[in-house]
Amino acid sequence: MAEQHFASALKLVHQTKPTQPGAEAHCLHKLGDVYIQRGKRTEDGGDFTKAAALYNAAMARSEAGGFRDMLAQALKQTEQFFLRHVGGVACEIDQYDVDMGHKNEMRETRGKVTERLETIDQRYNPYTHDQNDPEVRNLETARATAVMELFQEITHDRQTFVDRLISECIGRIGPPPCRYAFIGLGSQATELVTPFSDLEFAILLEEEADSEHNKQYFRNLTHYLHLKIINLVETILPAMGIKSLNDFYSGDRKSS
User: Fold this and answer.
1) What CA–CA distance (Å, rounded) separates 4 from 186?
2) Is the Cα torsion angle 216, 217, 221, 224 positive or negative in sign?
3) Domain that holds residue 16
4) 3-class DSSP state for residue 139?
5) Long-range contacts from 178-185, C-beta under 8 angstroms, 24+ separation
6) Which residues on neighbouring strands pair with residue 202, listed in sequence order?
7) Which range is least confidently modeled, 138-152, 181-195, 235-249?
8) What pTM did the predictor assign?
9) FRET partner for 210 with CA separation of 20 to 30 A, picked from 9, 38, 73, 202?
10) Are 102 and 158 in contact (CB under 8 A)?
11) Is 157 helix (H, G, I), strand (E, B) or coil?
12) Which stretches make up the Protein-PII uridylyltransferase N-terminal domain (predicted)?
């Protein structure tokens, strides 16, 4: 009932002109609180990821000040509640600040990739020659090779980045119960990933180790990794599929 009331308030505020980001932020904050309480009862990691997404959406609509500081504290507590109620780990952590460090790392990586692309564009620019000039073919070939090498570097760097996030998660919730492998999918697998690409992966378990207990561990690990990805502040809220805001399964286009 609380979720429906806050969701209705959010939709009402969102429809007003001019927009009221501050009022939206307060509604999103309250919805996040609802999902925190739900997660404590269900012990479902997905409820905590939704709470984190709602708090981050509220943060994006807030200016510096006490309310924003409160949201930052709520995000720190979200991870603590996740570890306590899903991972069975009681600890006091300041992980949100660590996540912001990851965000800064991504920003720096994107800046370096932008510089590399500009260098490639300047060094191998076929448009500085007449289209019938034989040098054009050489420049195009060199340009394609340089771009391919850059793609490979981005793929390797992002694999290292995600591996570090996974290691941080495992360091908190404990070692895996069996051997496993994270398999990159999509652009990560084809080595065509960009610094802005989404993350798709699968987890393979060793043969005859797919017990419910083992699979639950990796579900929790996936939710924890998702929580870290959300705290990079690049996950749009509709992607979370929060039914009271975006019900993708209702058949009603307006609600999705």
Assistant:
1) 36
2) positive
3) 2-255
4) helix
5) 178/205, 178/206, 178/209, 178/214, 179/205, 179/206, 179/209, 180/204, 180/205, 180/206, 180/218, 184/159
6) 183
7) 235-249
8) 0.89
9) 38
10) no
11) helix
12) 144-226
Indicate the angle between helix axes 2-14 and 21-42, nearest 10 degrees. Answer: 160
Nearest partner of 220 among 124, 115, 86, judged by Cα? 86
Residue type, 242: I
Given a contact cutoff of 8 angstroms between Cβ atoms, the answer to whether 239 and 245 are in contact is: no
How sure is the predictor about 93, in pLDDT bands with cuts at 50, 70 and 90?
low
- The rounded distance, in Å, linking the Cα atoms of 153 and 113 is 10
Q: Would you give the distance in Å from CA 126 to the centre of its chain?
A: 38
Q: What angle (nearest 5°) sits at the alpha carbon of residue 183, between those of residues 180 and 189?
A: 165
Q: Which token pair is 231?
A: 């705290």
In this prediction, residues 229-236 reach a mean pLDDT of 92
For the chain, the domain total comes to 1
In angstroms, the CA 84 to CA 216 distance is 16
Cis peptide before 177 (omega within 30 of 0): no
244 vs 249: CA distance, rounded Å: 11
Tens digit of each residue's pLDDT (9 = 90 or more) over 137-175: 999 999 999 999 999 999 999 999 999 999 999 999 999
